[in-house]
Amino acid sequence: MKTANFQVDAHQHFWRYTEAEFGWIDDGMAEIRRDFLPSDLKPLLDGCRMTQTVCVQARQTVAETDWLLGLASENDWIAGVVGWLPLADRDFPALLDAYAGQRKLCGLRHVLQAEPDEYFEQPAFQDGIRGMLRHGLVYDLLVLERQLDTAIRFVDRHPNQIFVLDHAGKPQIGAHELEPWRSRIVALGERQNVCCKLSGMVTEADYQRWSIDDLRPYTETVLDAFGPDRVIFGSDWPVCTVAASYSGWMDAVDTLLAQLSASERSAILGENAVRVYGLTGGIIPR
């Protein structure tokens, strides 16, 4: 890629595969039914001149968060972890306080795409989000396109909390449908406390036959809605590999961002992630 030397992949995963824990990996993604560890990713990062990553949870257990933090402590290039903690649990505040010394814990995520809309409205879940604010933790918002209206109402309840929308809100790229996704993304982009990850797009397209032209209108919508200062690059490795190699996705992003200035590309490909996730500081008391 023709980009700055400092680059951050702000969305990648590690796992030790078991069928019971990773049932979401269906037959169409059978090639990722195996372990993916730092030693698998590091050569790919080096090949694309990636300097740091943010590792994101793939299991909803406290043990997953501890494991990812352990990997981050062993690998300096894992600059941050978006983990999972039980936000709706009555003991969440005390548990969160117990993690305050984990400087690489930069965010939390719950797989809301697998939950009914009513889950967003739970008072205990809302309280959990409020509790994150005093620790300076980002909340990664993983929702489907059909949940974006609910997500907007959810975000509006927490105007001071920083949210990062994963995978551009999962548009229906394979069906070439822009609406109602586009209108909802524009509305979400009006909320200044929300950023958007340019990630997970090739797996919303046709795995075998996607093209840059398929992705372009969705990328342009994200850039128009959020601006280059609130868009963050992520690979979604290893999930992306069912549709593109790591370098293939990077090359696609290079093409999609070609019309931007060098400073705008640098922001999307690294600087925004450092600023939004506070990668040099971890949890920052407020």
Task: Summarize the model shown.
This protein has 286 residues and is α/β, with parallel strands linked by helices. It contains ten helices and eight strands.
End-to-end Cα distance, whole Å, is 38 Å
What is the number of helical segments per DSSP (H or I, 4+ residues)?
10
User: Which word captures the global form?
Assistant: globular
Number of strands: 8
The portion of residues forming beta strands comes to: 5-15%
| Largest sheet geometry | 8 strands, parallel
Structural class computed from helices and strand pairing: alpha/beta
Mean pLDDT: 94
CATH architecture: Alpha-Beta Barrel
Low-confidence spans: pLDDT under 50, at least 5 residues?
A: 281-286
Order of the strands making up the biggest sheet: 1-2-3-4-5-6-7-8
Rg estimate, integer Å = 18 Å
CATH class: Alpha Beta
Order of helices and strands: EHEHEHEHHEHEHEHEHH
- Helical content, roughly? 25-40%
CATH topology: the name is TIM Barrel
Superfamily (CATH H level) name: Metal-dependent hydrolases
Number of domains: 1
